[in-house]
Structures are given as C-alpha cells and as structure tokens.
Amino acid sequence: MPRRQLLLRLQLLSNPLVLCGVRGVVSPLAGAMGFGEEDCHKITLALDEAITNVIRHAYGGKLEGPIEIQFHKLNGADTAKPGLEITLIDRGAKARPDSLKGLPPGELRSGGLGLHFMRQSMDAVVHTRVGSTNRLRMVKFIH
Amino acid sequence: MQISARHLENTTIFDVTGDIDLANSPAVRKAFLSEIREKKIPRVIVNLLAVKYIDSSGIASLVEGLKASRDLKARFILFGLSKSAREVLQLSRLLKLFEIYENEEQALSAESV
Questions:
Q1: How many domains does chain A have?
Q2: Which residue ranges form the domains of chain B, and what is each CATH number?
Q3: Is this prediction's ipTM beyond 0.95?
Q4: Whole-number Å distance between alpha carbons of B26 and A4
C-alpha cells in the first residue's frame, strides 16, 4: 500500500463563491476517511481560511486566479500516522514573511485570524515558494 | 446567506441565515455599520440561530460591529450561536468580548453590562 494516495484534485478560480462548494466537498471526504465531527469542522475551517488567504493576499481579490487543491490520504505506513494531507497551489504573489507569522488572537481586531485558525485546526501547516507558485501543505492526523 | 432587519424601538435585530464567509461577509459588515454609524441605533442584536458556519471574515464583521458600537457607546449583542460558530469564536479568543445570549427573549431583556 502506498504511504500517500491521491484522492481528489480540484481546480478552482479565486472567486469567494467557490468557498461554499469546497466546504461541501471536504467535510464529507474527511468524514468518510474516519475523522470525527469536530475534526471535520476543523479541517473545513482550515481549508476555507487557506483559500480565503489565497484570494485576498496572493491574488489581491482578483477573481480569476487559478488554485489547485490536492487531497492525499496518508495511509500510516511504517511509523507515520494515518491522516489527510491537503496541498494548495496558486500562482499569485509571494507571501511576505511577516504575513506568515500570524497575529495573536484575543485582540479586538478585524484581521489576521485566518492563519491562527489554520494552525490551531491542523497538525501541520507549511508554506513554501516553488518557482512561481505558492504551496501550502496542511496535514491532519486521525487521532 | 441572507440578512434581514427588524426594527423595534431603539433596537435593530438582524436575522442572518446561511454561512458567513468571504463571499458575503462584506454585506454583513455593511448592514451592521449602516445601523450603528449612520442610523445611530443604540442597540443592535444579531440573530445567528440559522448560521451553521462562520469563518474569520465573518468573525471580522462581528468585530467591526462591536468596535463601531463601542465607539458610539451603543450595544452589540449576539444570540443563537451554533456549536461550530461558538467554537470559532472561542478559537479567536474573542468570545468573552461579546455580549452573547441563548435566545432573542434574553437578548432583548438583558440589562446593559
């Protein structure tokens, strides 16, 4: 059995209207993989926030930027735990290093919560720049 | 998402239905700020009973409403939070900053805190 298995690949445009469609896909997918209701919500929130960040920051609100989302099942071979790996790939602007730090929650401020939500919801959140693409890899293990 | 307003004496109640995300949070924010800043309504109540999902952009709209209310010494009250909406507010560590009630009756009868 391969350690990592592609389940689904989505091609989207950077239009906020796609968010509800993606939520409608990821939550049942996570549920079918064995995640509980609370984790399904966390995974859905993290992916929603990740796409929102791409739309707002990488594409600056432009509605037609391409976004690819890959869902891989992690099979838990060897010592690794089983889980779900989600990779977002966009061709937008390179993220500024300070924008990847996130802002502390708990303050009455209307921005900066998305990255905090992603990190609180997932077991791993890693941003990389590969050529002209931003890649965000998020992993949630089945506990 | 749909948002509609009911007007009582010195109070506006917003009934919000559906998910609040980046696609519609600007409309939610605009509706709140219109009542608070332009119409100077002293008490705005937001009915979230029919909101099953809210993300950071939705939370940001609620924060904008709360900040604008505080600036004008008005009240900004939430009621009917779903489990997931409450979890997201908890995750933001902003839950305690809002005046939150279980239902509309409690929200209407609550004294200013």
A1: 1
A2: 2-109 (3.30.750.24)
A3: no
A4: 39
